[in-house]
Recover the amino acids of this structure.
C-alpha cells in the first residue's frame, strides 16, 4: 500500500533554467565552505596530486607558508561546487572553463565564498530545449580577498525541459 | 630537513623542453570514491553525479563523473612529472570535457610542454602545459592548458 503522505507531498524544486540567466545577472552563492586539513589531505591523496606543499607541513613552511597549502584544484572545485545550485543544477553538460587564475594561496581554516555573473548566453543551434550559458565566477576568502576566478560554460535546459 | 631530497631532481624548470609529450606512468579507475566523494566534499549539488536511481531514467543510464573530478584526476595523474617542484599553480585555460566519464572507466594523462618562460623572480620559471585525459580505449575525455611556476635547479637543488 502506498504511504498516504506521498500523495500530499509537493516537490521543492532546485536550480535555474536558461530563461533565468539574463546577461549581467549576479548571484551571491549559498553556504560558503571552510576548508580544513582533512579536506585537503583527502582530496590531494585521492587525486594522486604529488606536490608536498599540500601534504607536508614542514616542507610548506620551508617555502614560506604558515601551514600546508590547500590544493588549488580543491579551491577550484569548492568554489565551483558552491555555484552549482544557482547555475547548472538545472541540467545540461559542463562544456568547459576559460581563463582560470589562482590569485592567492588558500590555507586550512580559510573560508571560501563564491559570486557569479552571467556573461554570455545563446540558443543551441541543434536543440531547441537547451541553450549555452557562460558565467564569470569569483571565489573569495574570509578577508574578501580574491583567491580564484574563471569563466565556465554549460548547456542549460530551458524551462520545462527534463533535467 | 633537506627539502630537495623530498622531490625528484629531473623535473625542475630547466628540464622542460617545449615540444616534449609525456605519457604519465599511472592511470586511475574512477569509482564512487572519486566521483561521489569529491562531488559531495565540494558541495556540488548536481545529483547526476550521485543519484544512480534518477540517472537510470536518463539517456546516460548511470551516474556521470563530475567534470571537475575528471580535471583534478588528470592533473593529479600528471602532477609528479609537472608539479612536484612547483611553487604555485598559476592558471588553467581552454578546459574542455569531450566525452562523459562513468564509474569503472580508467583515466590516463598525457602532457605536452608548450613553453618554458622566465618568471618575475630569478629562482623559478613558468611552464605552460597542455594536458589530455583519455580512457582505457583512448577516447579523449579532457583537454586543457595549465601554467605552473616551477623551481629552477640552479636555486633549489641544494636546499
Amino acid at each position: 500500500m502506498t504511504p498516504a503522505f506521498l500523495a500530499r507531498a509537493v516537490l521543492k524544486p532546485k536550480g535555474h533554467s536558461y530563461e533565468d540567466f539574463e546577461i549581467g545577472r549576479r548571484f551571491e552563492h549559498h553556504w560558503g565552505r571552510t576548508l580544513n586539513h582533512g579536506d585537503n589531505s583527502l582530496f590531494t591523496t585521492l587525486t594522486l596530486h604529488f606536490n608536498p606543499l599540500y601534504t607536508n607541513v614542514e616542507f610548506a613552511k620551508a617555502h614560506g607558508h604558515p601551514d600546508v597549502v590547500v590544493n588549488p584544484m580543491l579551491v577550484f572545485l569548492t568554489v565551483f561546487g558552491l555555484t552549482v545550485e544557482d547555475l547548472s543544477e538545472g541540467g545540461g553538460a559542463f562544456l568547459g572553463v576559460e581563463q582560470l587564475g589562482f590569485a592567492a594561496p588558500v590555507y586550512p581554516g580559510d573560508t571560501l565564498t563564491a559570486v557569479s555573473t552571467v556573461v554570455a548566453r545563446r540558443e543551441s543551434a541543434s536543440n531547441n530545449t537547451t541553450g549555452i550559458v557562460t558565467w564569470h565566477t569569483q571565489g573569495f576568502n574570509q578577508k574578501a580577498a580574491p583567491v580564484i576566478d574563471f569563466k565556465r560554460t554549460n548547456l542549460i535546459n530551458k524551462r520545462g525541459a527534463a533535467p | 630537513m633537506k627539502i630537495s631530497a623530498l622531490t625528484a631532481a629531473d623535473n625542475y624548470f630547466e628540464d622542460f623542453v617545449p615540444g616534449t609529450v609525456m605519457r604519465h606512468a599511472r592511470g586511475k579507475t574512477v569509482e564512487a570514491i572519486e566521483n561521489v566523494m569529491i562531488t559531495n566534499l565540494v558541495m556540488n549539488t548536481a545529483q547526476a553525479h550521485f543519484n544512480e536511481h534518477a540517472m537510470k531514467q536518463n539517456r546516460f543510464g548511470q551516474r556521470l563523473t563530475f567534470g571537475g573530478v575528471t580535471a583534478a584526476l588528470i592533473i593529479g595523474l600528471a602532477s609528479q612529472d609537472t608539479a612536484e617542484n612547483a611553487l604555485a599553480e598559476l592558471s588553467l585555460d581552454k578546459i574542455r570535457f569531450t566525452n562523459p566519464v562513468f564509474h569503472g572507466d580508467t583515466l590516463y594523462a598525457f602532457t605536452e610542454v608548450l613553453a618554458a618562460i622566465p618568471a618575475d623572480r630569478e629562482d623559478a620559471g613558468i611552464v605552460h602545459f597542455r594536458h589530455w585525459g583519455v580512457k582505457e580505449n583512448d577516447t579523449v575525455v579532457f583537454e586543457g592548458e595549465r601554467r605552473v611556476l616551477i623551481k629552477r635547479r640552479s636555486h633549489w637543488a641544494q636546499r
In short: Helices of chain B lie at 32-41, 52-56, 67-82, 153-156. The longest strand of chain B covers residues 106-118.
